[in-house]
From TrEMBL:
It comes from Brevibacterium sandarakinum. Pathway: Amino-acid biosynthesis. GO terms for molecular function: NAD+ binding; prephenate dehydrogenase (NAD+) activity; prephenate dehydrogenase (NADP+) activity. NCBIfam families: PRK06545.2-3, PRK06545.2-4. InterPro entries: 6-PGluconate_DH-like_C_sf, ACT-like_dom_sf, NAD(P)-bd_dom_sf, PDH_C, PDH_N, Preph/Arog_dehydrog, Prephen_DH. This is Prephenate dehydrogenase. Signal peptide: none annotated.
Length: 375
């Protein structure tokens, strides 16, 4: 397909890389010539010669026009860019990658004629990084990630098919959602987590360094996305303000209950336990691997020297035991050149893994085997 991408930031450039790798004909456009050329130099596509394209269109030829135009601009200018693309490319299907859909659709509807609106299909690939710009782009950014498509009964099937084919060409998994359902969902699973991560990280601004040095993996997990772009996220939160505000109001009610409980009055311990237990319930509903039902795994902790090749050796030893690693995480021991690796496995293989790793000389603190007196 011929695909034109307007906006060569992280998402636009990553999309160009993914589609170019599948031999699609990709052209690029950006208000910043430097950003546009950088994306092209990285292999995301070719810079569009807008003068030649305009001349050809003026002569009545649309043979070189794209089949799909993807708007990957910042959210605050996406609607205007979509409307302009619908006008400039009268035969193309126009889509976007903005993370808010309802308000964007309403604005586009105000800017274009109903006939043009039939050529617009809103999308949101659920992928990103804490880094921004084409320099952070990756061709596999969308692989195995959800790609939401917001169409309706009036969407021409052939245009919908084009957008689905493009999304699947990146390795993404296509999901069809109503725009309002999409916005309510991303408020809970993406937008509010960003706010909370930023608020937690902000409490570290004036904390003494000797306190921050105690930080473990829990703090890193909670604040990982706090390094996100403030300008971009201001636009996202403003675009989905109603849904985000609704979730935050519910969260404030529960937070107030915890604050009150911490006064340690009557019933306080029960309130604190309830807050943690409700969190357990919510956590258990997060999908497991490959979108499957949540699965409880056994966690085996291994102490790993912080030296080159050690992790490779560890995973080779696990592979030699013919045990699949379902997940893993790594923390670092304060003041020591030592890594603490938590390997998640199917519970039935926990004892076999511990026995095998102990026999290979790995240090497993308080393993189930040691507790049972087996080793």
């Amino acid at each position: 397909m011929r695909i034109h991408i307007i906006g060569t930031g992280l998402l636009g450039a990553s999309l160009g890389l993914a589609l170019s790798a599948q031999n699609h004909q990709v052209s690029l456009e950006d208000t910043s010539p430097t950003a546009q050329q950088l994306a092209a130099d990285l292999g995301a596509g070719q810079v569009l010669n807008t003068t030649s394209a305009a001349d050809a269109r003026g002569a009545g030829s649309t043979d070189g026009d794209p089949q799909i135009v993807v708007v990957a601009t910042p959210p605050d200018v996406a609607a205007q860019t979509i409307a302009a693309a619908l006008s400039h490319y009268p035969n193309a299907t126009v889509t976007d990658v903005a993370s808010v859909k309802t308000r964007l659709l309403e604005t586009v509807r105000e800017l274009v004629a109903p006939a043009e609106l039939d050529r617009y299909i809103g999308c949101h690939p659920m992928a990103g990084r804490e880094k921004s710009g084409a320099i952070a782009a990756r061709s596999d950014l969308f692989t195995a990630r959800p790609w939401v498509i917001c169409s309706d009964e009036d969407t021409p099937s052939e245009r919908l098919g084009e957008v689905v084919a493009m999304a699947e060409a990146t390795g993404a998994s296509v999901i069809h959602l109503d725009p309002r359902i999409h916005d309510a969902a991303v408020a809970k699973v993406s937008h509010v987590p960003q706010v909370i991560a930023s608020l937690v990280a902000s409490q570290l601004r004036h904390a003494p360094l000797d306190e921050i040095e105690l930080a473990g993996q829990g703090l890193r997990d909670v604040t990982r996305i706090a390094a996100s772009d403030p300008r971009l996220w201001t636009q996202i939160l403003a675009g989905n303000s109603e849904e985000v505000r609704s979730v935050l109001l519910d969260l404030r009610t529960e937070l107030d209950e915890v604050i009150t409980a911490l006064e340690l009055g009557p019933g306080s311990t029960g309130a604190l336990a309830k807050a943690i237990a409700l969190g357990n319930e919510g956590h258990d509903r997060i999908p497991g691997k490959h979108g499957q039902a949540p699965t409880k795994y056994a966690v085996v902790t291994i102490l790993v020297p912080d030296t080159p090749g050690t992790l490779a050796t560890l995973f080779k030893d696990i592979g030699d035991l013919d045990i699949n690693v379902e997940d893993f995480r790594m923390d670092h021991a304060p003041g020591q050149k030592l890594g603490i690796v938590d390997v998640s496995v199917v519970p039935a293989t926990q004892q076999e893994l511990e026995t095998g790793l102990l026999s290979k000389g790995w240090q497993i603190p308080e393993s189930a085997i040691e507790k049972e007196g087996i080793a």
